[in-house]
Specification:
Shape of chain A: globular
Order of helices and strands of chain A: HHEEEHEHHH
Largest sheet of chain B: 7 strands, mixed
Number of helices of chain B: 14
Oligomer: heterodimer
Number of domains of chain B: 2
CATH architecture of the largest domain in chain B: 3-Layer(aba) Sandwich
Distance between the termini of chain A: 33 Å
Largest interface: A-B, 17 and 17 residues
Number of helices of chain A: 6
CATH topology of the largest domain in chain B: Aspartate Aminotransferase, domain 2
Structural class of chain B: alpha/beta
Number of domains of chain A: 1
CATH class of the largest domain in chain B: Alpha Beta
Strand content of chain B: 15-25%
Largest sheet of chain A: 4 strands, antiparallel
CATH topology of chain A: Sufe protein. Chain: A
Radius of gyration of chain B: 22 Å
Strand order of the largest sheet of chain A: 1-2-3-4
Number of strands of chain A: 4
CATH architecture of chain A: Alpha-Beta Complex
Shape of chain B: globular
CATH class of chain A: Alpha Beta
Structural class of chain A: alpha+beta
């Protein structure tokens, strides 16, 4: 992964990776495998205070604010959800907070995974993205008021 | 795998399936295997046509209309009530209150009983296997009144701990409110015995029958139950409609529910007098088309016959249970001796959401999650289950698809 790449570069990279799969099982298998490689959340954050409630699956989100960028660690009890988290964090981690707050996530459409982000799926992902954007916006606001 | 002892009735099954247009729907390029009947059932063409024909030819507001169309609509609507009363074995159509569904029926009783003087020291008995609809209205009533909610525990196999029920039942009990058939486990509760034991000390019984009537003949007079709640949409009828059966004397003693048109006798600013039962509980223009559609669904069921339905569903339950057990690591949740055609399970440690997502891609519709029975999931220490719930129109082939989908999911999440 190119650490200096922008959100949209990284999204393009993922779209290309996914383009080799022509059936849904392979695509989902890849999502599941990405989830298995997701960096572990610090145990102190795997609790109710950092839990994003989904009716079906749970998500835990740990923000790691830097000077003007932001990074997250996250986890889920469902493997597909965890894989989607890995995809999102691969695109958004270590990016300028202001870019994260307003990131265009339409690449998920091209991965044919967007249905999982619908609030009606109740898997916590939709709320997770909202929470990520809120954290990022707060960091971005802080760094702009600094002298 | 798919040779059924019912092979002689296969022709009948195919004809029945053709009555349900949704069963031909394609999902992700495959014909749907609809195994989510406990959430809602599909509607036969006759029901769809009946609703359509009502709106095309008979639509007018009911009651009090002088014009001919209104009288036709009123007669048809009230005939539906008679039909529904007869179907559930009610002594009179006066005992059949139309509601928005089971949840609404339970809330009606909880709201009206509250006004009637339940207070501190009184108890309401429910069980650990209740749907949230048969928990929350009573919790709210207890908060308002100071009464106490007591919960009958459920055994590991998914049956009521009957001894505990007998121990909890006392002169403090003001109502026993129990599920007839559990939506999560499929358990059929011994309701006849429950009603008769409660009646020994004069305690009335309300049954949540949402999951019962799709599978078996319910006869409220025979059960001698005091209140019985059911939903049209689980019984192959339209959504947003249901029934509260109540014994006439009990309904008469209850105060009205919501205020508005149709439920009144005479309105004056000095005070209002109320209509007779069941109308005193039915404020506002009712869901006329749904009542008529529901009566048509009951005619359809009657024609199929509960004997055939029971035979068909017993086969689906036995077949699915034995095929699911071929999968190592499957855990069936709810193995009561007396069970309706519902199978809840977990696939190893795989999250139900993951399993449901893969099955959906294969065109198989199941439900995943806590099924609105969170306390029950807590009792088993699980986040939820995958639930396959069958109706008479399901087939062994659909169960074969479910099982092969589960083998696929098992590999993917290994």
């Amino acid at each position: 992964m190119n650490v200096t790449a922008t959100i949209s570069n990284r999204a393009d990279e993922l779209v290309e990776e996914f383009s080799v799969f022509d059936d849904w099982m392979d695509r989902y298998q890849y999502v599941i495998d990405l989830g298995k490689e997701l960096e572990m959340i610090d145990e102190a954050y795997r609790n109710d205070a950092y839990r994003i409630r989904g009716c079906q699956a749970q998500v835990w989100l740990q923000p790691i604010p830097m000077e003007s960028t932001i990074t997250f660690k996250a986890d889920s009890d469902a493997q597909i959800t965890k894989g989607l988290i890995a995809i999102l964090l691969r695109v958004l981690n270590n990016q300028p907070a202001v870019d994260v707050a307003t990131a265009d996530l339409s690449f998920l459409d091209e991965l044919e995974l967007k249905e999982h982000l619908s609030p009606t799926r109740k898997n916590g992902l939709d709320s997770m993205i909202k929470q990520i954007r809120l954290y990022a916006a707060a960091i971005a606001a802080q760094s702009t008021v600094k002298p | 795998m798919s040779e059924s002892p019912l092979i002689t009735s296969r022709e009948k099954l195919d004809l029945v399936r053709a009555d349900f247009p949704v069963l031909a729907t394609q999902v992700h390029g495959q014909q749907i295997a609809y195994l989510d009947n406990a959430a809602t059932s599909q509607k036969p063409q006759v029901v769809i046509d009946r609703i359509s024909s009502y709106y095309q030819h008979e639509n007018a507001n009911v009651h009090r209309g002088v014009h001919t169309l209104s009288q036709i609509a009123t007669d048809t609507y009230e005939d539906s009530r008679k039909r529904i009363a007869e179907f559930i074995g009610a002594g009179s159509s006066r005992e059949v209150v139309f509601t928005r569904g089971t949840t609404d029926s339970i809330n009606l009783v909880a709201a009206c009983l509250g006004v009637q003087g339940i207070g501190a020291g009184d108890e309401i008995l429910i069980s650990e296997m209740e749907h949230h609809s048969n928990i929350v209205p009573w919790q709210l009533l207890c908060e308002r009144s100071g009464a106490k909610l007591r919960v009958i525990p459920v055994s590991e196999s998914g049956e009521l701990e009957y001894d505990e029920f007998e121990r909890m039942l006392s002169e403090r009990t003001k109502l026993v409110a129990l599920v007839h058939v559990s939506n999560s486990l499929g358990t059929i509760n011994p309701v006849r015995r429950i009603v008769s034991d409660a009646h020994v000390i004069g305690v009335p019984v309300l049954l949540d029958g949402a999951q019962a009537a799709p599978h078996m003949r319910v006869d409220v007079s025979d059960l001698d139950v005091d209140f019985y709640c059911l939903s049209s949409h689980k019984l192959f009828g339209p959504t947003g409609f249901g029934v509260l059966y109540g014994k006439a004397a009990l309904l008469e003693a209850l105060p009205p529910y919501q205020g508005g048109g149709d439920m009144i006798d005479e309105v004056d600013f000095a005070g209002t007098t109320f209509n007779e039962i069941p109308h005193k509980f039915e404020a506002g223009t009712p869901n006329i088309a749904a009542a008529i559609g529901f009566a048509t669904a009951l005619d359809y069921l009657e024609e199929l016959g509960y004997d055939w339905i029971a035979e068909q569903e017993a086969d689906l339950l036995a077949y699915s249970t034995s095929r699911l057990k071929e999968i190592e690591g499957i855990r069936i949740v709810g193995e009561a001796e007396n069970k309706a055609s519902v199978v809840s399970f977990l696939l190893g440690n795989t999250h139900p959401y993951d399993v449901g997502t893969v099955l959906d891609r294969l065109g198989i519709a199941v439900r995943t999650g806590h099924h609105c029975t969170q306390p029950l999931m807590k009792r088993y220490g699980i986040p939820g289950t995958v639930r396959a719930s069958f109706a008479f129109y399901n087939t062994r082939e659909e169960i074969d698809r479910l099982v092969s989908g589960l083998f696929k999911a098992e590999k993917m999440f290994a």
